[in-house]
Amino acid sequence: MGYPEQYLQFIEKFNDGEYYECHDLLEDIWMEDKSDKFLQGLLQLSVGLYHQEYGNIKGARWMLGNARKYLTRYQAVHWGLDVTRVLRYIDECEKMLPEKDVISYTEAKAMTFPSLRLYVDTSC
């Protein structure tokens, strides 16, 4: 299957930890079909990670929860992406979030947060 170029660029940016750019890449193609909950889930995931990076823990918790809700229906694999693995990652991230709504930027940067490298199986 030929995937949209923005989707493939999203995967690269995600793996580079450029979560703000991830959102920008997928938003354009999601805006064409807002019923696509897979893309919306990936958008929410990247926004949640972006919030965590800057200490907005409440925003991170909200976005990660939404990402899980949207992506769950696409298990196990969708668009060549191991969605089940992504969902496990979201669970790990949520467990690492402190019980506060906000932490300082310095605290956020000092957090040991799980990492995930995304791979797209282009044969799907």
Mean pLDDT: 94
- SSE string, helix = H, strand = E? HHHHEEHH
- Indicate how many domains the architecture comprises: 1
Indicate the low-confidence ranges by residue numbers: none
First-last Cα distance:
6 Å
Helical coverage, percent range: 55-70%
Sheet with the most strands: spatial strand order: 1-2
Number of strands: 2
CATH architecture: Orthogonal Bundle
- Structural class designation: mainly alpha
Protein name: DUF309 domain-containing protein
Organism: Brevibacillus brevis (strain 47 / JCM 6285 / NBRC 100599)
Pfam family, one: DUF309
InterPro entries: DUF309, TTHA0068_sf
Chain-wise SSE layout:
Blueprint: H1 5-15, H2 19-32, H3 37-53, H4 57-71, E1 77-78, E2 81-82, H5 83-96, H6 105-110
Antiparallel strand pairs: 1-2
